[in-house]
Amino acid sequence: MATTTTANHAEKAEIFCRDEARVDWHSKALWLLRQKRDRAASSLPEWEELRELGSEYKLHTLSHLGEYLEQFEANCIKQGIQVHWAKDGAEHNRIVHEILAKHQVKKLVKSKSMLTEECHLNPYLEQHGIEVIDTDLGERIIQLNKQPPSHIVVPAIHLKKEEVGELFHEKIGTEKGASDPTYLTRAARQHLREHFLSADAAMTGVNMAIADQGAIVVCTNEGNADMGGNLPSLTLHSMGIDKMVPNMEAASVLLRTLARNAIGQPITTYSSFYHGPKPGGEMHVIIVDNGRTKALKDKLLAESLKCIRCGGCINTCPVYRRSGGYSYNYFIPGPIGIAVGAQEDNTNTTAWACTLCGSCTYVCPTKVPLDKIIAYQRRLKAEQGTLPYGKDRYMPIVGKVMGSATLFNCAMSVARFSLRNLPNAMLKPFSGAWGKYRELPKAPKTSFEAWYNKNRSE
Amino acid sequence: MSSKSAILAALDSVAIAKHEMPKVAIAPRLDDLVGQFDASLKAVGGSLVKDNAIEALQQQVAALVAEGNQVISQVAEVSGNRETPEDPHALRDINYAVIQGELAVAENGSVWVTEQGAGIRIAPFICENLYLVVKADTIVANMHEALKLINLQDTGYGVFISGPSKTADIEQALVIGAHGACTLTVYLV
Ligand code: SF4
C-alpha cells in the first residue's frame, strides 16, 4: 500500500538530523548491533557456508514455491490446523476479522509481525471494535506512542529511555522521572501480563513454515509469542508466502544465522514449533501474497524474497543509521526496505537513500543482492520517468560529461579553479546535500592527469 | 477463482531458475560437548548444575515448597505442590516450574522442550523461574544435529529454550526477564 506522503527521503532525514546528538547515539546503537553480529558470525568457521546454504535453500524453495505451499497446507490440515489464503492485505484482514468475530473476540494479543503492519491490520480490527495489544516490548512502546516501527527487529530504537519513562508514566503509571530500563521493563511485564491473561485470542507472525511437517516456527527473545499463543484457546498465525522452507534441515540452517545476524545471539531465547492446536483449541494459519508473486516474476526482485527479516542490513547501513527509520516512506526501512518498497514510494527518492557501498549485501545471511536490487530500482524509476526532482535534469548531463574526455577535463579544471578562488558561501549551494554538514575540500593546483603526465609519464 | 488458485497459478512461472535442494555437510564440533553447552548457556544468561544434579534439585524444590512457593513439577523424581490444570490460566501464580527437556544444543545453550515434557504448553513461559532437567548424553553439537533427532510427528508443540527471557528494546540495554521466565537453571543428569 502506497504511503500518502509528500516529504521525500532527504526532507524526512533532515528532521531526524536536527538533533545531532541523537543521530550520533542512534548510529552508535546500531553499529553496536553490527559489531555483535560480527563477533557471532566469526565465531563459526562455517559462517560463509551457512550463508550459501541459506541462499540455496531459499532459491530452491522459491523456484518450487507452489508445490511447497500445497504440501504445507496438506500437512497442516492433517494436524488439525486450518489454513486460509489471502491474495492481498485487505483479504488477510477480512479473514482475520471473520475468525475473531465468529469467536466473539474482544481483545487480541499480538506478537511482532511485520506482515500485519504491511496489511494495516491493527486499525482495521480497531474499527471493528476489537482491542489489539502489541506485546513485544518495543512494539508496545510505539503502539502507546502512536508511532509505526522505525526498525524491523528493534522497533523503538529511535526513542531514548527518558522518553519511554515519560510515556510509561503517562500510560501505565510508572513513577514520574523513572527511566531505568530494568524498572521500565518490569512494569511493562506486569502491565502486559494482565493483557495476556485476559485476551480472547492471540496472533503471531511466522519466521519459517516447514512444508514437509506442516509446522510453523516463531522466534522471540521475550517469550511474548508463546505467552500469547499458549493461553487463549484460539491462535492465528499470519505468514507471507516467502516464509516457506522445505524441511527441518533448511530450518536448522536459518535458525543458526537469524539471531546471530540480527543481534549477535547464537539463537533467540525461544524458537517455537507450532504443529497443531492445543487440546480443545483452534489454530489458524493465513498465507498471504500481497504482491510477492508479482516480485517473483522479476529475476532480480525475486531474490528479495530470500530475506528472513533479521535486520542485519539495516544495522550496518550508513544511510539508515544517520537518517532514521521514518525517512523511507515505507514501513520497512533501510536496504531491504528500499529493495521491497521503492515502488511504493511516490516521492521517488528512497531508491537514492543508499551509497551503494554494498555493506548490506556483505552481511546478509541469505545473500540477498541488496545493492544490485537498489541500483535496479533506480533504473526502474528512470524507465518509468519518475526520477526524483533534479536527478532527471543533471543525470543526462553527467552522462555526457563523464563520457567525453575533453568535457570532463574542462569541467574538472573549472571545479578546481572555483574551489581555490571562490568563497565557500558561493560554492556550497552547488554541492547539494553533500556540502550541508561538510566543508568543501581544498583543491589541488593541477589535475591528477596533468601531474601524472608531467612527473611519471616517461 | 479462489485466492489459493490465483496464488498457485501466479507461481506456475517464476523468474528464478529451478534450483536443486542443497545438502548440509557441516562437520559438528564434537569436543567437550558439556563444556561447550555450559559456556553457551552462561552466555545467554542461564546457569548449569551438573554435580549430583537430581539430588540438588530435589533439595532445592523441597526448600522452595517449605517456604510456600508454588511449584509445578513434571519430573518424576521431583515433587512440587501443584497439579497440571486443564486451563492454562490457572498457572498464573506459579513461581517455579520443573520440566524435562529432551535434548540440549551445545552451540547455543538451548534445550528442546515439548508439550509432553512440559505437561501443558504454557508452563515454561508463565512461571517466574524455570528448572530444566536434561540428560547429559542428549547434548548435540549444533542445530543441524538437533533437528535431525527431533520428530515433530510426536508432538503438537515444541520449543528450543535458550536462557531466561530477555529484551533490549529500551535503548539496547539488556534486561533479563521480559515475558517468560526470569531465571533459567539447567540440571544435567
Ligand atoms: S535482506 Fe538479508 S540482511 Fe537484510 S533483513 Fe533480509 S535477511 Fe537480513
Automatic annotation (TrEMBL), chain A:
Gene3D superfamilies: Alpha-helical ferredoxin (1.10.1060.10), NagB/RpiA/CoA transferase-like (3.40.50.10420). It comes from the Bacteria. PROSITE patterns: 4FE4S_FER_1, 4FE4S_FER_2. Residues 298-319 form the 4Fe-4S ferredoxin-type domain. Signal peptide: none annotated. Transmembrane segments: none annotated. The keyword S-adenosyl-L-methionine does not apply. Keywords: 4Fe-4S, Electron transport, Iron, Iron-sulfur, Metal-binding, Repeat, Transport. This is Lactate utilization protein. It comes from Shewanella avicenniae.
Automatic annotation (TrEMBL), chain B:
Coiled coil: none annotated. Pfam families: LUD_dom. It comes from the Bacteria. This is LUD domain-containing protein. Residues 94-189 form the LUD domain. InterPro entries: FTHF_cligase-like_sf, LUD_dom, NagB/RpiA_transferase-like.
